[in-house]
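B., you asked whether I could sanity-check this one before it goes into the benchmark set. Here's the sequence:
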Amino acid sequence: MTILETHELTKEFAGFRAVDRVTLTLEEGVAHALVGPNGAGKTTLFHMLTGFVTPSSGTIIALGQDITGLSPDRISRLGVARSFQITSLFEHRTALEHVVLALHARDPVSFRFWLSEGTVARYRPRAMEVLAEVGLADRARRPAGVLPYGQKRALELALALALSPKILLLDEPTSGMSLEDVHRTIALIKRVRAGRTVLLVEHNMGVVAELSERVIVMQQGRVIADGAYEQVRHDPAVVTAYLGQTDA
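And here's what the prediction gave me:
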């Protein structure tokens, strides 16, 4: 069953077409990867799906609703959550405080940034459950600034999970990681993707092979291949996009 789809989605910047009439679908409960050479339009497409960039034309349907042009907070409240390629955490706030704030933000009856101790106490049990889900329960009281890089990325994933998303979008989840952290992150994403639709932008094809059931390949703003990893990696158009045209 389709849970997210785009129709002729296009984005132009000062006459440059970064995304060119992209029509695609994400299947419910399936892990997808969005890959392609630098400048293929992946990041722009990703930003449009999550409301950070407004499409020039075309539509985005998620969870049965037209979300084209909606703000990021409205999209997230519908059940679409994302992580970012670059970590953006409050260095002096603990991991637990980060997740409590995320839970507070998704509460439809609460709009105050300041939280009383009673409010914090109400969110704390669920926050600890989310931290346990990403392997950070024993780091709950540590400031984000002292966490190793891999654990900071895990905390960012926890913030996305706090929104109870049906669709989880991950932007370069292993970027800048050591090989050991990459393996840990792969295992973590395998755990948390159960029952969710996942779309990840990733350059590491080993990670794509491990995590993705379906691979969508972009080049010059267009989708040039879509299918299982083994099928896509041998597609002549994909080989040419990554390696360049070679003489026969």
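One thing to flag: Residues 87-164 form one domain. Otherwise nothing jumped out at me.
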